[in-house]
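Please, structure for the following, as tokens.
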Amino acid sequence: MLSYRPDIDGLRAVAILLVMLYHAFPNLVQGGFAGVDVFFVISGFLISSLLFRGFHDGSFAFPDFYLRRVRRLFPALIVVLAAALLLGWALMLPFELKGLGRHVGTGALFIANFKLWREMGYFDENLAHKPLMHLWSLGVEQQFYLMFPFFLWALKRTGVGLFRGVAGAALVSLAVQIFISPQSPGHAFFLPHARLWELLAGSLLAHAALHFRRPLSPVPTENLAGAAGLFLILFGALSFEGGDGFHLGRLVVPVVGTALAIAAGPTAWTNRRILSHPGLIWIGKISYPLYLWHWLLLSFATILCLELPPWWLRLARLIFATGLAWLTFEKLERPIRNGARYQRSPVLLASLLAAIGLAGFQIYRKNGVVVRPPITALSYLSPDPLQRHDWLAGNPRYYSSLWGRRISVIFAGDCHMRADSARGPFTGVAAKCLTLHAKKPNVLVIGDSTGGGMAAALRHADLGLNVLQITGVGCHPSMRYTAAHRQKYCADIYRYVEAFVATNDLQAIILTVNWSDGQHERTGAAPFLARLREIAPRVIVAGPPLKFTVPAPLFLGRRRPKEDMYAIANRFRSPTLRRTNELIRQYAADHGVEYLDRYRILCPEEKCPLVAESGESYFVDAVHLSHEGIRYFGNRLREIGFWNAPRKVASGVIKPFP
């Protein structure tokens, strides 16, 4: 048995407090996510200490190790997953519950990090609306617990020293982190091989502690290391911000700080006087269930409020989560972990967790159980509003219902491009997407997924145009000359567009992307626009789409009684939309191209319709139109006489649409 170190429970308390403050008050502690890195190092140290001692004295047994992990991790997780399903059943709309069901299933399998990685990106939902988002870190740790004992066993069998093998694995993992962070930050954030080095940093400390009673001596060195470690942890939490992007520096500082604090030992001044404070020790002991409960409660509060809840409600949720964590620890975790009467508990716990996971997957398969008390089916969405690409199942269709079944729009893998391992890099677009017409004006729509919606609306408008299309997921024209960008296929797409336009007789090019107010977007797209003006007779820039702060189906499903549709649209409309619209309008004028004001077309006289006469929402999320929305947009383009509208006034200033 390892000797108990109260300062490590204090470190756990620091970690969970940072994470909780970051989730509840993101503007207060913008780097509080560093608490997860602290947890990783601590977990690596404690687990490796048990393993190294077991391998050293020959007492290690695989069954005993994994049974202890089950008793330690499963009880609190079972209760929280069950609570998530109950809350979701009572409070969530069907498509929300469908997503929660899959997260419950992947959480029970400890692969939530892989699922969240697949969901992350251009079409990612608001993370605050994912009550089990935080299970990604539990997945990383459990995957480490599963494989690490076998890795050490293999090192022993092959005669490779444990320290050399672990250090080598840590260096490889760190190299992976360094290499993939710039190109794929989601990969570097969620996947275990990029995070392994953090846990192995704790493993190396455990190896040193086994062979050196006091790795850091004399006492002044211990005190300095302890103070420096705690300082680095707090520095990382208070200096880094969420908008800095995910990069190695955000990890190294808290990892090094935690390693120093652990290496300093329990007698270092900061460890003895600060980290060993009874209050911190108490929080540290309940840190695991507290980590599970706090985000679940905060997320459901956000789901119900549709926006960041008031500060007092967030604080109340944290206090309530603390109470639940204490009850979970005292009445469930501790008795199961230490009580002799629960010797057969691992079998029961595994069965319960499997049952809850299966229930989650069944709810997902049933599309969120549309008909259920107390939630009944709402008519704001078609039965299957947004079929997301199923990466794990290898389904080749891509957003098959994104624009609806009743309008033929984006041909999967043909007109709307994406880069994935199955298809490889972009190699060209199908002929059916770029077939020229001898008698109709040929109009090419390019851009991102909102460009797919534009192409669909133009087809529905029936303006006598031959609508061609080549769009790509998240592809902004600023990527045309950014070869190092992680979405290199976007640069390939825009190069293909240039070659196609230069060698074919087109009447117009319509550039349609989800513009933001970032200067880098406009600056980066300028060379591409200049080139299009040289080779195309008519270039039209579509302004930003109508955007909301949360998915439209959410605020439609939870709108207040008798709340006016136009009022709720204004309430959740993106606060930067008007500014961005005017910026892009002026941008188009400065570059001598026409401007299509999507916002004004969709919202005449500042009134934004949200629901069709059929009762179906015009939006499937916060920005993408449903098939009814496509119809409405197409009808509006026809009403304003889009294709026949004047192009420029005599002064040379672009005449806006409408």
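The radius of gyration is 28 Å. The longest strand covers residues 466-472.
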